[in-house]
Amino acid sequence: MYALTGANGQLGRLVIKNLLTLVPANQIVATTRDPQKLADIEALGIVVRRADFSDPATLSEAFAGATRLLIISTDTIGQRVEQHKAAIEGAVAAGVNHIVYTSAVHADPNAAHPILAEHGLTEAALAASGVQWTALRNSFYAEVLKDLVGLLLVNDQLLIPEGSAAHTWVTREDCARAAAGALLGKLTATGPVDVTGPEALRFADLAERYSRISGQSVTAQALPDNEIIAQVVAKGVPAEAAGFLIGLASWIAREMVTTPTDIVEQASGVKPSPVDVVLRTLVTA
User: Fold this and answer.
1) Residue 285 pLDDT greater than 70, yes or no
2) Same domain, yes or no: 81 and 165
3) Looking at the DSSP assignment, which residues form a beta bridge with residue 71?
4) What does the alpha-carbon distance between residue 260 and residue 140 come to, in Å, rounded to a whole number?
5) E strands along 47-118, which residues?
6) 10 and 70 share a domain?
7) What is the mean pLDDT of the chain?
8) Which domain holds residue 210?
9) Looking at the structure, do residues 281 and 238 belong to the same domain, yes or no?
10) Burial code of 102-141, b = ≥16 C-beta within 10 A, e = fewer?
11) Are residues 104 and 222 in the same domain?
């Protein structure tokens, strides 16, 4: 039996879609806080159980009978380390012998950024659990570019943060393929591994790529964050949303240097998709 948490989320449902091409439905245990939201999944023959990370008593029962478990990280910053620890303890109590966890590139318990620190602390808990584990350190989803490029495109310029880090954007679908393969034991690596797209791109590279795909002459214009925010707000975007997304872009441009790996292909047999597949959706929207 192969179990996963967060089965009703975007990534969870994509993982299930991939699992169904590889194993019978009755070998999959899909867990979520609200099983009623997985009625369509249960109708396919998948076992659906309640698992609430904030209610640890539900976890060992939810994972019972599973030999391998995929823990999809929660998104509640400030609470998820304890939630993840509860899930790990529940898995150990249930007799799970391998845990796969969706982490983030550059995860580190001592990282200054809370997201990276929380993933790092979860990985430390996995290492201390006594169970075999794999942390899938996913790069940022390429789908984020749908919002970012649309936000930063002003006339024929892509306003970009002042930073030259090249990042390996990866599609959510590729992360789901990697997670499904890792859950089924198709990935031999243990411990932390980086899950990336096929190439590392700076924001300036993204401007060039978008220009080529769209046929529109778009140039990159590097500006301080406050100047980008001002121009984006002038487009009618709420200041809070503009500040959050531009802060994210700035963090990526300054710090999130990543290098392509073959983990997606190792786990799924399929090469990861380039960012072009996401950028094309902006052109056709």
Assistant:
1) no
2) no
3) 101
4) 13
5) 47-50, 68-71, 98-104
6) yes
7) 95
8) 140-170+196-258+273-285
9) yes
10) bbbbbbeeebeeebbbbbbbbbebbeebebebbbbbbbbb
11) no
